[in-house]
């Protein structure tokens, strides 16, 4: 039996995020995968990985539908739940109101802003908070 340390999991998180982005279809799938990869803590959460990540045809891919039904059973904090709910809403899964952004911290809000820009077809990788 192999045990995984916290340090080993941290090394795996960016790799998993990168794999999900690379295997995602262009558009909403890739935008959502990119947002989760940038956010990092959700992909480090075992329950999220179990509900989201599947191996299809030898590739790691995201099964977004598996997450919505478990959103409130994953032991996420309010900020993580709001972020994940917004990501799922971008996918057209669930109905999380846009007012959920009020729960986001600055880092996650910036990730969400970039994701919305990508979804709209704009490259706004230099989104900065208002001065």
Q: Give a short account of the largest sheet.
A: 2 strands, antiparallel
**In percent, how helical is the residue content?**
40-55%
Question: Helix- and strand-based class?
Answer: mainly alpha
Uncertain residue ranges: 1-8
The largest beta-sheet arranges its strands as: 1-2
Mean pLDDT: 83
Number of strands: 2
CA-atom Rg in angstroms: 14 Å
Give the termini separation: 52 Å
* Separate helix tally: 7
* Percent range for β-strand residues: 5-15%
Shape: globular
Order of helices and strands: HHHHEEHHH
What does this structure look like?
This protein is mainly α and 131 residues long. It is built from 7 helices and 2 strands. A two-stranded antiparallel sheet has the order 1-2. A hairpin with a 2-residue loop joins strand 1 and strand 2. Helix 2 packs antiparallel against helix 6, helix 2 packs antiparallel against helix 7 and helix 6 packs parallel to helix 7. The N terminus is likely disordered.
Tags for this model:
globular, 7 helices, disordered N terminus, mainly alpha, 6% strand, two-stranded antiparallel ribbon, 131 residues
Topology (elements, then pairings):
Blueprint (H helix, E strand, L loop, with lengths): L5 H18 L4 H12 L1 H4 L1 H7 E4 L2 E4 L2 H4 L9 H13 L15 H14 L12
Antiparallel strand pairs: 1-2
Helix pairs in contact: 1-2, 2-6, 2-7, 6-7
Give the gist of this structure:
The protein has 131 residues and is mainly alpha-helical. The chain is 55% helix and 6% strand.
């Amino acid at each position: 039996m192999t045990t995984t340390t916290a340090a080993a999991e941290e090394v795996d998180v960016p790799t998993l995020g990168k794999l999900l982005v690379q295997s995602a279809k262009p558009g909403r799938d890739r935008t959502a995968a990119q947002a989760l990869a940038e956010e990092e803590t959700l992909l480090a959460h075992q329950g999220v990985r179990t509900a989201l990540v599947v191996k299809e045809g030898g590739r790691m891919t995201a099964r977004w539908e598996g997450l919505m039904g478990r959103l409130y059973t994953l032991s996420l904090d309010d900020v993580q739940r709001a972020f994940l709910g917004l990501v799922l809403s971008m996918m057209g899964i669930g109905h999380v109101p846009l007012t959920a952004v009020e729960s986001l911290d600055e880092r996650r809000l910036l990730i969400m802003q970039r994701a919305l820009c990508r979804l709209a077809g704009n490259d706004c990788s230099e989104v900065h908070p208002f001065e």
